[in-house]
Protein backbone atom coordinates (compact mmCIF):
# COMPACT_ATOMS: atom_id res chain seq x y z
CA UNK A 1 0.00 0.00 0.00
CA UNK A 2 2.80 2.40 0.86
CA UNK A 3 4.39 1.89 -2.58
CA UNK A 4 1.14 2.77 -4.32
CA UNK A 5 0.69 5.93 -2.28
CA UNK A 6 4.25 7.04 -3.04
CA UNK A 7 3.89 6.31 -6.76
CA UNK A 8 0.52 8.02 -7.19
CA UNK A 9 1.72 11.67 -7.06
CA UNK A 10 4.39 11.02 -9.70
CA UNK A 11 1.81 9.41 -11.97
CA UNK A 12 -0.64 12.28 -11.55
CA UNK A 13 2.15 14.79 -12.22
CA UNK A 14 3.17 12.85 -15.32
CA UNK A 15 -0.39 12.83 -16.64
CA UNK A 16 -0.68 16.57 -16.21
CA UNK A 17 2.40 17.15 -18.41
CA UNK A 18 0.60 15.75 -21.44
CA UNK A 19 -0.11 18.57 -23.86
CA UNK A 20 -3.57 17.39 -24.95
CA UNK A 21 -4.98 15.51 -22.00
CA UNK A 22 -8.72 15.09 -21.83
CA UNK A 23 -11.09 12.31 -20.86
CA UNK A 24 -11.36 11.23 -24.49
CA UNK A 25 -7.57 11.21 -24.92
CA UNK A 26 -7.14 9.28 -21.68
CA UNK A 27 -9.65 6.69 -22.81
CA UNK A 28 -7.93 6.40 -26.20
CA UNK A 29 -4.49 5.92 -24.61
CA UNK A 30 -5.66 3.41 -22.03
CA UNK A 31 -7.45 1.36 -24.69
CA UNK A 32 -4.25 1.31 -26.72
CA UNK A 33 -2.34 0.06 -23.68
CA UNK A 34 -4.92 -2.66 -22.98
CA UNK A 35 -3.39 -5.11 -25.48
CA UNK A 36 -0.29 -7.25 -24.87
CA UNK A 37 0.93 -6.99 -28.47
CA UNK A 38 0.71 -3.19 -28.44
CA UNK A 39 2.50 -3.05 -25.09
CA UNK A 40 5.32 -5.21 -26.46
CA UNK A 41 5.61 -3.01 -29.57
CA UNK A 42 5.57 0.17 -27.50
CA UNK A 43 8.20 -1.20 -25.10
CA UNK A 44 10.61 -2.04 -27.91
CA UNK A 45 10.13 1.37 -29.49
CA UNK A 46 10.66 3.06 -26.13
CA UNK A 47 13.85 1.15 -25.34
CA UNK A 48 15.35 1.63 -28.81
CA UNK A 49 14.12 5.22 -29.39
CA UNK A 50 12.62 4.17 -32.72
CA UNK A 51 12.04 0.97 -34.65
CA UNK A 52 10.92 0.11 -38.15
CA UNK A 53 7.98 -2.12 -38.91
CA UNK A 54 10.05 -4.96 -40.34
CA UNK A 55 12.32 -5.08 -37.27
CA UNK A 56 9.30 -5.22 -34.96
CA UNK A 57 7.87 -8.07 -37.04
CA UNK A 58 11.11 -10.00 -36.80
CA UNK A 59 11.75 -9.45 -33.09
CA UNK A 60 8.18 -10.19 -32.00
CA UNK A 61 7.54 -12.88 -34.61
CA UNK A 62 4.40 -11.07 -35.76
CA UNK A 63 3.02 -10.97 -39.28
CA UNK A 64 3.28 -7.74 -41.25
CA UNK A 65 -0.50 -7.34 -41.06
CA UNK A 66 -0.62 -7.74 -37.27
CA UNK A 67 2.31 -5.37 -36.73
CA UNK A 68 0.87 -2.70 -39.03
CA UNK A 69 -2.58 -2.97 -37.46
CA UNK A 70 -1.21 -2.47 -33.94
CA UNK A 71 1.08 0.37 -35.03
CA UNK A 72 -1.92 2.09 -36.64
CA UNK A 73 -3.84 1.72 -33.38
CA UNK A 74 -0.93 3.23 -31.42
CA UNK A 75 -0.57 6.02 -33.99
CA UNK A 76 -4.30 6.83 -33.86
CA UNK A 77 -4.11 6.88 -30.05
CA UNK A 78 -1.44 9.57 -30.31
CA UNK A 79 1.34 7.47 -28.79
CA UNK A 80 3.68 6.92 -31.76
CA UNK A 81 4.74 8.93 -34.78
CA UNK A 82 5.96 7.51 -38.11
CA UNK A 83 9.05 8.63 -40.04
CA UNK A 84 9.67 7.30 -43.55
CA UNK A 85 13.23 6.56 -44.60
CA UNK A 86 13.61 4.96 -48.03
CA UNK A 87 11.44 1.83 -48.00
CA UNK A 88 11.31 1.67 -44.18
CA UNK A 89 8.86 3.35 -41.83
CA UNK A 90 10.30 4.07 -38.39
CA UNK A 91 8.12 4.67 -35.35
CA UNK A 92 9.03 6.63 -32.23
CA UNK A 93 7.16 7.62 -29.08
CA UNK A 94 5.48 11.02 -29.46
CA UNK A 95 6.64 13.69 -27.03
CA UNK A 96 3.11 14.21 -25.72
CA UNK A 97 2.96 10.70 -24.29
CA UNK A 98 6.64 9.96 -23.58
CA UNK A 99 6.53 10.68 -19.84
CA UNK A 100 3.36 8.65 -19.40
CA UNK A 101 4.70 5.69 -21.40
CA UNK A 102 7.99 5.78 -19.46
CA UNK A 103 6.07 5.76 -16.19
CA UNK A 104 3.90 2.81 -17.24
CA UNK A 105 6.89 0.71 -18.30
CA UNK A 106 8.85 1.56 -15.16
CA UNK A 107 6.31 -0.65 -13.35
CA UNK A 108 6.65 -3.50 -15.87
CA UNK A 109 10.40 -3.42 -16.43
CA UNK A 110 11.00 -6.89 -14.96
CA UNK A 111 8.28 -8.62 -16.94
CA UNK A 112 9.70 -11.81 -18.46
CA UNK A 113 7.99 -11.33 -21.84
CA UNK A 114 9.32 -7.79 -22.22
CA UNK A 115 12.80 -8.93 -21.15
CA UNK A 116 12.70 -11.77 -23.68
CA UNK A 117 11.74 -9.30 -26.44
CA UNK A 118 14.80 -7.18 -25.57
CA UNK A 119 17.02 -10.28 -25.61
CA UNK A 120 15.72 -11.31 -29.04
CA UNK A 121 16.33 -7.76 -30.29
CA UNK A 122 19.93 -7.84 -29.02
CA UNK A 123 20.59 -11.22 -30.66
CA UNK A 124 19.15 -10.15 -34.02
CA UNK A 125 20.97 -6.81 -33.80
CA UNK A 126 24.28 -8.56 -33.00
CA UNK A 127 23.78 -10.91 -35.94
CA UNK A 128 23.07 -7.91 -38.20
CA UNK A 129 19.68 -9.28 -39.15
CA UNK A 130 17.71 -6.09 -38.58
CA UNK A 131 17.05 -3.20 -40.95
CA UNK A 132 18.56 -0.78 -38.44
CA UNK A 133 21.99 -2.40 -38.88
CA UNK A 134 21.69 -2.16 -42.65
CA UNK A 135 20.98 1.56 -42.41
CA UNK A 136 23.85 2.12 -39.98
CA UNK A 137 26.27 0.40 -42.34
CA UNK A 138 25.04 2.22 -45.45
CA UNK A 139 27.35 4.83 -46.89
CA UNK A 140 25.34 7.90 -47.83
CA UNK A 141 26.45 9.67 -50.99
CA UNK A 142 26.17 13.44 -50.88
CA UNK A 143 24.55 15.00 -53.94
From TrEMBL:
Protein's recorded name: Regulatory protein, arsR family
Sorted UniProt keywords: DNA-binding, Transcription, Transcription regulation
Single annotated GO MF: DNA binding
Provenance organism: Pontibacter chinhatensis
Listed SUPFAM superfamilies: Winged helix' DNA-binding domain
Alphabetical list of InterPro entries matching this protein: ArsR-like_HTH (IPR011991), ArsR_HTH (IPR018334), HTH_ArsR_DNA-bd_dom (IPR001845), HTH_MetalResp_TranReg (IPR051081), WH-like_DNA-bd_sf (IPR036388), WH_DNA-bd_sf (IPR036390)
Family matches, as Pfam families: HTH_5
UniProt xrefs under Gene3D superfamilies: Winged helix-like DNA-binding domain superfamily/Winged helix DNA-binding domain
Domain of life: Bacteria
NCBIfam families cross-referenced by the UniProt entry: HTH_metalloreg
PROSITE patterns from the UniProt entry: HTH_ARSR_1 (PS00846), HTH_ARSR_2 (PS50987)
Residues of the HTH arsR-type domain: 18-116
